[in-house]
Amino acid sequence: MACTQAGERTAIYCLTQSEWKLDEATASFFQTPDVFHRESMRDAVDQRKLEQLYGRYKDPQDGDRIGIDGIQQFCDDLRLDPTSVSVLVIAWKFRAATQCEFSRKEFMDGMTELGCDTTEKLRTLLPSLEQELQDSVKFKDFYQFTFTFAKNPGQKGLDFWCLDDLYREMVRCYVEAIEKLPERRPDPATVEGCSLLKPDNYLLAWHTPFSEKGSGFGAATKAMCIGMRYWKPERLGTLIEVSIECGRMTHNHPTGFLGSLCTALFASYAVQGKPLVQWGRDMLKVVPRAEEYCRKTIRHMAEYQEHWFYFEAKWQFYLEERKISEDSGNEATFPENYDAEERDKTYKKWSSEGRGGRRGHDAPMIAYDALLAAGGSWTELCQRAMLHGGEPPARDTGPPMGPLGRPLPPAHW
């Protein structure tokens, strides 16, 4: 036990599986420690006590499931708010298929796997289960689970036959939001863009004219959810299309809608667990595919070509400034003096009009710069990404990304 740092129960289980041969038991443990720990936890569960516990929560009309009343009692016994992230973590560990219920198998197998036959044991275990979300592999599994878990039973994806239907729904939501939120008006480009949307035109609902005013930050600040929806590398084509179409509904200018693409890509890279230093250069590698998509749609390419280079050039200069433009660049370089005052000067320098984060290229750039510099500090991230003198809404593009370069767990969204 001193050698392996295993608990007594795990040590006994490991020895019994190796016929009490110490060398074999030790070798087996170091090869697969998680397996032995899990198996010993299973053996420690009193199945009769677990059956009694299940009986406390099961649906009176259906003994093979725990319904919403049972879930509420379960949460009460655990002293948890049903809406807390802890409940979602338990559902993840139980591999629950449906919201607000557990099948008998899910509950029994989940509790057994965790080595718990009482709610007291499970409550004691919860902090370590939540700590697992700090592991990037387990966080990715948790993220994938929550996306599937949130869907309605039998639902395979979004309730749209095609992306055009998704765009029509976006148009409807944009127009409705603008009408209902007069007291908190978004940026002028968003207002103008929404006024040009045509919710009653089935074929051209989301088609808006090119706009010289559409280079602002508004499209970039809305696109994170697109990257989280289409985060898998094999869905890159869909991410490109949806982020561009969503962006140019309100910001039909390359600097504007490429900001939407940039934010969506960064969110997808975060979920993938891609190293931060690669995000900027990998994003620039995708921009030619975005241009190819725009050519295929045959809309406003003459105007786009006149302005397309600006976004790419600004980002290329930024990556060179941080010395991460080449694949060999594995660590961003920052000025020795990079306090709040110096950062504001730098943010203004990146801007096209002297106010940081006002355009689609520099809003995500400020957020990315903050992520690179913050390391593992949430405080540093907030100070760099949010507490600056630039455009207020531009501060919304970065903070939901955690200090480790991935989306924060749902409790922080």
Could you list some keywords that capture this structure?
413 residues; mainly alpha; Recoverin, domain 1; ADP-ribosylglycohydrolase fold; 3 domains; two-stranded antiparallel sheet; 19 helices; disordered C terminus
Brief overview, please?
Pfam families: ADP_ribosyl_GH, UBA_4. The chain has 19 helices and two strands. By secondary structure, the protein is mainly alpha-helical.
Intertermini distance? 41 Å
Largest sheet, spatial ordering of strands? 1-2
- Counting helices, strands and paired strands, the structural category is mainly alpha
Our count of domains comes out at 3
The CATH architecture name of the largest domain reads Orthogonal Bundle
Q: Which range does the strand content fall in?
A: under 5%
- CATH-defined topology of the largest domain: ADP-ribosylglycohydrolase fold
Average residue pLDDT: 80
How many helices? The count is 19
What portion of residues is helical?
A: 55-70%
CATH class of the largest domain: Mainly Alpha
General form: globular
The topology string of helices and strands comes to HHHHEHHEHHHHHHHHHHHHH
* Main pleated sheet: 2 strands, antiparallel
Radius of gyration: 26 Å
Poorly predicted ranges:
35-40, 393-413
What is the number of strand segments?
Answer: 2
The CATH homologous superfamily of the largest domain is called ADP-ribosylation/Crystallin J1
Protein described:
Keywords: Ubl conjugation pathway. With 413 residues, the protein is an all-alpha fold. It folds into three domains: 8-43, no CATH class; 47-149, Orthogonal Bundle (Recoverin, domain 1); 206-412, ADP-ribosylglycohydrolase fold, CATH 1.10.4080.10. The chain has 19 helices and two strands. It has a two-stranded antiparallel ribbon with strand order 1-2. α14 packs across α16 (301-321). The protein is globular and about 75 Å long.
